[in-house]
Amino acid sequence: MLAVVVARDATPIPERGEQTPEFIEREEGGQVVYQFRNKTFRLDKAKARARLNGKRVINGLRSAELNVLPLKYAEAYRIYKQMKANHWEPDVIDMTKDAHQWNTGALSSRERWIIEMGVGYFSSAEGIVGDSVLHVIEDNLTAAELKHASLRHIAEESIHMDSLLHIIGSLNIDLDEVTAKFADIPSIRRKNDYITRHMPELKMGIDLTVTANKQKFAKAIFGITQVMEGTQFYALFAMVLSLHRQNKMTGVGQMFQYTLRDESNHIALGRYILTELIAENPDLWTSSFQDELVEFMREGVVLEKEFVADCLPEDGVGMTRREFLDYVDYNADRRLTSLGLPTLSNVRTNPFPWLDEVIFLRKEKNFFETRVTEYQTGGSVKNSNEDDLI
Ligand SMILES: [Fe+2]
Ligand SMILES: [Fe+2]
Hints:
By secondary structure, this protein is mainly alpha-helical.
């Protein structure tokens, strides 16, 4: 949890995330030398200073080069490295057992419904996130390292969309039937409309020197990364991963496991961009705007609880509906707290502590370690001893 600091106008602003200690900078004559892990970069000092001085989250110098050096937002580069280290490919995940269970009546109708809701909801949600990060967030950012990390975020949403196609194809689900069925589920439509209704204006390009527009931009980042990815994805993830724990639909579960781990980086990146944006533009962080964000999350929580009720009409998959509703509150409050905002509930402990282990077991679930044979055969990994694949 990040502490809050008090700004000059007594409006609390979130404390900026810890800068990575891995990046070392020193001067040598007319050059600035940057050391990141085992790599060294040399830049002309005067040009590096000019680029650094022009860097802003928004309204900074724009460069077509997308050169992240000199790094001003080092944490974004660290998160990019973490995202890259977590890389995975959906279509090599074995779905044989899943297809067998799906087609031989091994699942209850309740369990099948959870998988269908997972495919139905995420088929649209992953696209909404990818499109919004591209046209709303990335387009408006001006600092190269923030754009760079956001582009990786967008690419990961494409991987998530691809994973759904892998599920649909492997289980032989009728694509049109799924699309039609889930477009008509009110709780899904309401969740999607609630996030996207603010987007068209931002996609057109707005003047981000105006405080009210900066707030719209900040609210969009909050909505996509903290409300949608950070709160509205998690209950369904937990349901599918609960099946996985019971040895049911383990291929789907494995993909959701990788996806959930990606989402934790997307949430961290969104929060980092937001805190840097606020630090550079304290005019946007008014108490009424903070209230607006809390209300936005409150609405998101209500919609998510309706959605949970649709996914799990009664207790099932080894957990109670009450636990899932608490899990929604728990996640919403974690996101609010991380930005120094007031919480909405009294749920302070994770009702599903085993899920944290699922997300953070990096080494044991390293995709390339478990898939090394296939990848080396395919010639895809040429530099397997690079430190960031560990
Ligand atoms: Fe995603
Ligand atoms: Fe995401």
